[in-house]
Design goal:
180 residues; little secondary structure; 5-stranded parallel beta sheet; two-stranded parallel sheet; 13% helix; globular
């Protein structure tokens, strides 16, 4: 397994302009390789599964907003991911599927899904969702009828604590913001 992604390997082989699916799964990556952005014109699917060192998606990991127009699928299952910075994945403006199962995500945030109007599937089971006042912005997003990503996000956050076994979108917003 490798710890670094060397884009020159792909460039020298002449594959970069044609590369549509890239799996970097089961490597020892500790971050999303910045060189992924150089595949912006062709990359459709990116698989980062089972890289235990990837703990966050940072702004710029997928380039600037709208750069990765061809990317439709991001999968980062079982990576111990515990943070996604707001707007970090919206560079993939045509993103349709996000798979983040079996990570350490605690609080879903509305900013993760800004301008992802093509989003159809979000699969992020097996995360220890807390469902507390920090989740209220995301809960508000779920109740917003004007949001095009709403359907993909409904019934996806199963509360781990507080409202154990209940989907976040069924928890009244007032219960999340109360000071009890």
């Amino acid at each position: 397994t490798s710890q670094a992604f060397d884009q020159n390997t792909w460039m020298n082989a002449g594959l970069t302009p044609k590369l549509a699916v890239l799996s970097l799964a089961r490597n020892q990556l500790t971050y999303v390789p910045k060189t992924i952005v150089n595949l912006a014109n062709s990359l459709e699917e990116l698989y980062l599964d089972k890289n235990a060192g990837i703990k966050q998606f940072s702004n710029g990991d997928f380039g600037e907003k709208g750069v990765m127009r061809s990317l439709t699928t991001i999968s980062c299952n079982s990576c111990y991911l515990n943070e996604i910075q707001d707007f970090s994945i919206n560079a993939a403006s045509n993103l349709q599927q996000v798979f983040l199962e079996s990570n350490d995500l605690i609080t879903p945030k509305a900013g993760w899904f800004v301008d992802l109007n093509q989003l159809r599937v979000v699969s992020w089971d097996q995360n220890p969702w807390l469902c507390d006042c920090h989740s209220s912005g995301f809960r508000y997003l779920l109740g917003s009828g004007a949001n095009p990503t709403r359907r993909a996000l409904q019934n996806t956050v199963l509360c781990y604590t507080n409202f154990n076994g209940q989907y976040l979108d069924t928890v009244p917003l007032s219960n999340l913001t109360s000071t009890n």
